[in-house]
Amino acid sequence: MMQIHPVILCGGSGTRLWPVSRKAVPKPFLPLVGDETLFEQAVRRVAGDDRFAPPMVVAGADHADLIMAQLGDTPGARLVVEPCARNTAPAIALAACLLPEDAVMLVCPSDHHIADRDAFLAAALAAAALARENYLVSFGIAADRPETGYGYLQRGAPLAGGYAIRRFVEKPDLARATEYLASGDYSWNGGIFAFRAGHLLAELAAYRPDMARLVAEAVKGGITDGARFHPASEPFAAIVGASIDYAVMENTARAAMVPADMGWSDIGSWAAIAEALEGAADASGNLARGKGAVDFAQCKDVLALTDGPRVSAVGLEGVCIIVQDGEVLVTTREAAQLVGKLPGALVQ
Amino acid sequence: MMQIHPVILCGGSGTRLWPVSRKAVPKPFLPLVGDETLFEQAVRRVAGDDRFAPPMVVAGADHADLIMAQLGDTPGARLVVEPCARNTAPAIALAACLLPEDAVMLVCPSDHHIADRDAFLAAALAAAALARENYLVSFGIAADRPETGYGYLQRGAPLAGGYAIRRFVEKPDLARATEYLASGDYSWNGGIFAFRAGHLLAELAAYRPDMARLVAEAVKGGITDGARFHPASEPFAAIVGASIDYAVMENTARAAMVPADMGWSDIGSWAAIAEALEGAADASGNLARGKGAVDFAQCKDVLALTDGPRVSAVGLEGVCIIVQDGEVLVTTREAAQLVGKLPGALVQ
Questions:
Q1: CA gap B247, A328 in Å, rounded
Q2: What is the ipTM of this complex?
Q3: Are A316 and B319 within 8 A, CB to CB?
Q4: Beta carbons of B311 and A328 less than 8 Å apart
Q5: Which of A178, A245, A306, A320 has the maximal Cβ count within 10 Å?
Q6: Spans of chain A, pLDDT less than 50
């Protein structure tokens, strides 16, 4: 049986989860939902299952030690340390260069939450099967609201376990998103991909020859240090960064998608965390997390997280209260997207 | 000209203003509205005006030093230190015993806010004139909402500058309070009084002879220590406490009231503070107070007070955020009455 090679990407700053998510310890490395961090969940999701090879993690140098610590004793895990941030296409290409040409890669962001692991595994196996047929496969996340913050995938002709992708749509306005949701023809583009390593590199070479060449040079000139691999920084820094969607997926004639209804959340705001934690809330929808005491009086759907100071919440509905490192954030779920623009989040 | 003798009562714990108001430094001694404390405002309100004698303050021993400090160099100020708390009637009677029989006392709580000093002074002069005619006078605060948390006074026959009191009403239910407000016949009982000292003591002796006797004994056996007077604790402790309303005002045939529309607030909750501070708020009704930074994003009518940690408020309306001494309180204005029942407020 050919194993699937998980490639876990660690990027993104997650300023909308300030004051808990910070530059030094961003979103993937925090236990935001459950006791494990999102990164640990991403690793665990494909661990202990012999259909999957050990994970390859791609991340910046700033978080390398954090990653090694959180990988713990994951057998065979490798870490590719990006010399600098160049978006997802170069990161994925680095991993592809380090894998056998025929290896099926399963590219997973490390800052998403997936509630239903079985549904994820089923989609991963379907995606891998299509990848072996030389499709470049994207997970199509079941949309349950007219979200304007994500890209959408429109389904085309049916394939085994999935569909061809008819069209990629950038973040739509609300009218269009509502239309997409009603049509049943569109899914969210969740940033989870499967492809054969050699096939991905061949397609990249077709659409972004400079990028493909510079990634290959960076790997050729790289240094292995135990479980860590350090690509050469000069060629990598010379890359003009681009997302894998923009560099490859939107250009290829072999784009496919597998539908995935798996309790996915990008944990993009405190509202998303509150939603992902709903199962743990009390009968009024209130939830206390963290080390400090929390008292609720006549509250509904309030999330309170504190690293020490007691939080007392009175008469609130749909509010998140986050107390961390001497910062106090109080936000409605509705406006939680604005947190990333706060002075505190920007100057951290 | 006969001067009016201000008697300033310092009682009440103010747990509904937790976590700022605490047992050690309760509500009257905090700069909750403006730069001065409510106590300092009460003293200042009758200072520098030769129609008023120096103030006499009545308070418990716990706050004696705080009071002396906040009195500063108020000339001639005296402090009567209650041996124990026995409600307002004994406290007022102590002051009455220490004043000349003919002195007109103006009894003022120290935990209220009065925005319009001129209106207060006009009402005080009218009340003093009625007191000289041997009326026991209560300020009738202009009611502007069907408040169920206060007692009400119903007007009777007109007198010079006021009215006889037809009836005292304990805290009514909402239906009744709404009726009172609509009738225009009722005012709030604000706990501000004027009477001749000798007259008050005579009436007290009629309705509460034991209390009157024990207060007289406590004063007779008391000790003067500079500006402080310490009544004898044994007789004072033997008093069965009662409010001045219950012990005297509701019994006398000489109860009168002066109407007072003076921007009065009992600062009974964080909502009341937010209202009293409305003039200082920004165009969206938001107001930041305290030492720490505060950032508002899409907020309306939010009060944030912090003793250090930055507060970031997002998308909120009509909310008070109070950060003090390692406690974080977030309450709607509507539910702010519940603050006093919080675990934090009770166990402080």
A1: 48
A2: 0.84
A3: yes
A4: yes
A5: A320
A6: none
**Cβ contact A335–B298 (<8 Å):** yes
A323, B327: Cβ pair inside 8 Å?
A: no
Q: What is the dihedral of CA B79, B84, B85, B89, to 10 degrees?
A: -70
- If one counts every other C-beta atom within 10 angstroms of the C-beta of residue B209, the result is 10
State whether residue A284 sits within 8 Å of chain B by CB. Answer: no
Alpha helix stretches (DSSP H) within chain A: 38-45, 64-71, 88-98, 117-132, 174-183, 197-207, 209-220, 233-237, 244, 270-276, 343-347
A308 to B328: CB separation less than 8 angstroms, yes or no: no
Mean pLDDT of B241-268: 96
Beta-carbon contacts of residue B275 (< 8 Å; ≥ 6 apart): B265
Q: Residue B286 phi/psi, 5° resolution?
A: -90, 150
For residue B17, CA distances in Å to A201, A297, B286, B321, B326 come to 65, 15, 19, 12, 15
CATH domain B4-265 topology: Spore Coat Polysaccharide Biosynthesis Protein SpsA; Chain A (3.90.550)
Cβ–Cβ contact B344 with A under 8 A: yes
Question: Which tokens sit at A269?
Answer: 């705001």
Instruction: Report chain A residues whose CB lies below 8 A from the CB of B310.
Output: 326-328, 344
Question: Within an 8 Å CB–CB cutoff, is residue B347 touching chain A?
Answer: no
* B80-102 per-residue burial string, b: 16 or more CB within 10 A, e: under 16: bbbbeebbbbbbbbbbbbbbeee
Instruction: Give the pair of three-digit tokens for residue B323.
Output: 């950060």
Please state, in angstroms and rounded to a whole number, the distance separating the CA atoms of residues A88 and A111.
Answer: 14
Average pLDDT over residues B323-348: 92
Q: Give the residue-averaged pLDDT of B300-314.
A: 97
Residues A10 and A59: beta-carbon distance below 8 Å: yes
* Cβ atoms of residues B232 and B83 within 8 Å: yes
Tokens 């496919």: give the residue. A256
Phi, psi values for residue A94, rounded to 5°: -55, -50
Query: Which two structure tokens, joined as six digits, stand for A321?
Result: 């209260």
Structure tokens at B93: 């009677």
Nearest CA in chain A to B337: A314
Q: Is A312 in contact with B295 (Cβ distance < 8 A)?
A: no
Amino acid identity of residue B322, one-letter, is I
Return mean pLDDT, chain B: 95
Q: What is the dihedral of CA A59, A60, A64, A70, to 10 degrees?
A: -40
CA distance B119 to B55: 20
Give the model's pLDDT for residue B110: 95
Distance CA B115, CA A184 (A): 61
Residue B252 has pLDDT above 90, yes or no: yes
- Judge whether A14 and A334 are in contact, CB under 8 Å: no
**Residue A310 at interface with chain B, using a CB cutoff of 8 Å:** yes
Helix (H) or strand (E) holding B244, with range, is: helix B244-244
Query: Domain ranges in chain B?
Result: 4-265, 270-347
B346 touches chain A (CB under 8 A): no
Spatial neighbors of B300 by CB under 8 A, at least 6 apart, are B284, B285, B286, B316, B317, B318
Please give the C-alpha separations between residue B2 and each of A47, A181, B57, B196, in angstroms, as whole numbers: 91, 82, 20, 12
Tell me the nearest-neighbour CA distance from A310 into chain B, angstroms: 5
pLDDT, residue B34, reads 83
The whole-angstrom distance between B66's CA and the closest CA on chain A is 28
- B254 half-sphere exposure, CB direction, 13 A CA radius: 19
pLDDT per position as a tens digit, B93-111: 999 999 999 999 999 999 9
